[in-house]
Structure formats: structure tokens, C-alpha cells
Specification:
The structure is a homodimer. By secondary structure, chain A is α+β, with helices and mostly antiparallel strands. Chain A is built from seven helices and ten strands. Chain A folds into two domains: about 60 residues, Winged helix-like DNA-binding domain superfamily/Winged helix DNA-binding domain (Arc Repressor Mutant, subunit A, Orthogonal Bundle), CATH 1.10.10.10; about 140 residues, Chorismate lyase. The first copy, chain A, has a six-stranded antiparallel β-sheet. The first copy, chain A, has a two-stranded antiparallel sheet with strand order 1-2. Chain A binds a DNA duplex through helix 3.
DNA sequence: GAGTGGTCTAGACCACTCG
DNA sequence: GAGTGGTCTAGACCACTCA
């Protein structure tokens, strides 16, 4: 009596081995249930899990087909800067550079989904690994959504960690790009002229309202992102 | 009679709203089943789906807890270069620069999981968007795993697309980084001195054997990666 | 209309692991 | 030992959608 996971694995092997090619129709659940000597519910569980992972597409009446992959999903795990540094065995330090209420520039205002003349909390700070600048953080926090941020100094805890404690389950969108360091990045990251930086931008929402927008710049020779699996 | 998806949504709302904070124990399945007027199996389905998505952790006897998020998963969809360019409304062109059997350099040999003096197929080619260089592809193909590649000229089809047709269900690992363009990148991507590039490296396996390793370089001002959801 | 997947219930047994 | 989740079966009804 196979479990749904065992069934899933058998089916996945048939897909990976090419026995069932992209576009092919899989046998209906009832038929597979008979083959495996189990119930249709169990086969259904197995096939749903394959569909969740994007290997097959299912439509009522039309049946289950192997997906033609023209795309590839890559999962990235983004950690708190401090953990990232400490887990690589390096010493972490944090430095607040500036903090104040300001009216964000046009581009940031758009990211914050702002209505007219919103003021936001603007924080610039640095994260060090073994004493060397690792990441420059340039952040805007929407005080309408997280008013408590207005009374936090961020002198000992980075906004990164603070926000995660206050707003644990927000959604986020990330952008990754390469650029030549601008003057602020050069100064704080201790870079020479024409040196490249790796930049992550993240916008975070809760309930459709923008919580924060942040730009994280790294010296290119000390930073890379690797996918998992 | 709520469906498991409806139950899932209610539970997720309680987590997102902070009613159940990270670390909190959720009620046992039997109790929730009573609350929702459904069976334990249905509640189980809902909670498993929350566990799949990383919102809760479940252990027998210990129960189900809201996960403390110190990390954030971001999903990236990597498309075939051609699709990426065409879907942005630009014209795609492809140019093969070189192709030959070679012994890969040390670093690539390690990536290919190579045993001693393996020869691999080395291909360099360019992808254009609206006539401008968009991506330089520098690829090594393991001929032990994909011998058919040895008799493909790659003059009209890029290795990218060819491999996807031949080896649809491999696994991959990606690395993203920023760098200053090297001489080859400067020449083919038409870049000035000291210009940054965004580099994607990908290694692909089938059944634990390395299929291919590729380095994809982009002019930084024309490329970024955005996560989905 | 008929074939396919989507889901539920009721009852059951098992597997793990905490205290 | 006992509480919790993991999973199966048997039967059922429904929802979609293709021909």
C-alpha cells in the first residue's frame, strides 16, 4: 500500500526519465489508483503535489499533462544581514549614519504608494563584516503603517531586525541589479572610482499598504546571491 | 461546510493579523475541526498547505507552531533569453561566436564534477535585443551526459533552447553577482572601460550528473532581476 | 452528456516524540 | 504512556469543460 509520496516519486521519475514527455497526457486518477492498488484520493494527493511544484497541469475533463518548461523557478533565501554575516563566521557590526523625517523623492514616493505630501522616516546605516563595510542600507519607512518606528532611535538595532519583529508576515518584492557605485556608496562602502556594486531593492507590504522601501548596496567583490536546491 | 482552502485562509489571517504570533502553538487539528464544523482530515489538509508554504512548523505530539521568520523566500522566474526579450516587446537575434571541444579550466572542471582530463563542448554566443548586445553566453556542456550536443552546430539555435528541449527536467543552481566587465565582455557587449556587468552563473544536473555550466553576462544598465509575488 | 479532477465525511490505524 | 500529526479507505457529490 504505497503512500502518496511514494506514488508522487514514481510519477516524477517517469516524467524526469522522459517516459512521459512535456505535453503528454497522464492516465486518469482512477486508472493510476488501480495500477498502484490504492484509492483515487491518494493518487489525487500525489498529483496535486506535482501540480503544486509545477511539473504537471491539471484541468477537469481535460486531464493532467506534463508541463512544457520554458521557464525555471529559482528560490532565494534572503536572511537578516546580521545572520548572513555571522553564519559565514564573520563578526558583525552595525552603525547608524542618519535618521530623520523627510519627504521622500519622487521615485521612492511612488514605491511607498504615497498620497501627495507624505512624510516618511528615512534611515541610512551600515552593516560591517569583520570590520569592513558589507552593506549600505538606505531605507524609507511609512509612518502611517508603522507609527511606532517614529519613536525608535535605531541606534543599536537595525531597522532590518526591528521591522521583522514588529511586522513579521508582510509580502515583499525584490529587485537585483548591478551598478557603478555612486558617491554615497563610494564613501560609506570604502570603494575606489568606477567600482561596481550589487544592489538589492525591496518593497514590503502589509494588507496592500506599503510598509517600507529599502536599497541595500554591496561591494561587488564581497557579495553574491545563490539559489537554493 | 468550509473547504480546506477557506480554512487555510482563516488560519493564515490569524497569523498575519498577529492573533497567533511567531512561536505560538496552534490548537490541535481535532479542536479546529470542531470549530469549523469539518473533519480532522480537512483541517489537516489546510494546515499541511500552510506548512508547505513555510508559515507553520508541525511536529507530532509537539503540535503546530507559527514559524519565527528570520528569513524571507523570494521566487525568481528565469526564462529563456529569447522569451525574455520578445516578451518585453523587443526584437531578438542570436549569434554564435565560437564552438569547440576543449579541456575546461580548473574552476569549470570543478563545476562540471569532472574526473581528470574530461573534454567538454565550449560554446560562446551572443543574444541581442533590438540589435544591441543583451547577454553574452559562455557555456560548457558535459558530453558524457549529453553526447548529442557533439553533433549540433548551434549556428541557428542557442544552446539555451536546445538543452531545454533535450533535457527538460534537470535541477539547477544559480549565482548572481556584479563585476567589472572583463576584456571579453567589453568586446562583445560593447562596453567602455570600467563598466559593470550583471552576471548569472548556472550549473545544471540530471540525476546527480552535471549537464552544463553557463556564465551569462549582461550590461548592468539594461538588466535587473525581479522576484515574483 | 460524459469524463475528469476537487473535495468532503467517517472511521481507522499508525508513527512519532514529548514528558 | 499518551497526545499529536500523517495517511489510508470507501463511498459520495459536485464543478468544470470538452466534444
Amino acid at each position: 500500500m504505497p503512500t502518496y509520496k511514494e506514488i508522487r516519486n514514481v510519477l516524477l521519475d517517469r516524467i524526469k526519465s522522459g517516459e512521459w514527455r512535456p505535453g503528454n497526457l497522464l492516465p486518469p486518477e482512477a486508472e493510476l489508483a488501480e495500477e498502484f492498488g490504492s484509492t483515487r484520493v491518494t493518487v489525487n494527493r500525489a498529483m496535486q503535489s506535482l501540480a503544486d511544484d509545477g511539473f504537471v497541469e491539471r484541468r477537469r475533463k481535460a486531464g493532467t499533462r506534463v508541463v512544457q518548461r520554458t521557464e525555471r523557478d529559482a528560490l532565494i533565501r534572503i536572511r537578516i544581514v546580521r545572520d548572513e554575516i555571522e553564519q559565514s563566521g564573520r563578526r558583525y557590526n552595525y552603525l547608524l549614519i542618519s535618521r530623520g523625517r523627510e519627504r521622500p523623492p519622487q521615485r521612492i514616493q511612488a514605491e511607498l504608494g504615497a498620497s501627495g505630501d507624505l512624510e516618511a522616516l528615512h534611515i541610512v546605516c551600515l552593516h560591517f563584516a569583520d570590520g569592513r563595510p558589507f552593506q549600505l542600507e538606505n531605507r524609507w519607512i511609512n509612518l502611517d503603517v508603522v507609527p511606532q518606528a517614529g519613536s525608535e532611535s535605531f541606534e543599536t538595532i537595525s531597522p532590518n531586525e526591528w521591522l521583522l519583529q514588529k511586522v513579521p508576515y508582510s509580502n515583499a518584492e525584490h529587485t537585483f541589479r548591478a551598478a557603478t557605485a555612486d558617491s554615497e556608496e563610494k564613501e560609506h562602502l570604502d570603494l575606489g572610482p568606477n567600482e561596481p556594486v550589487f544592489v538589492i531593492e525591496r518593497t514590503t507590504w502589509l494588507d496592500g499598504r506599503t510598509v517600507t522601501h529599502v536599497m541595500l548596496s554591496h561591494p561587488a567583490d564581497d557579495f553574491r546571491i545563490v539559489t537554493r536546491d
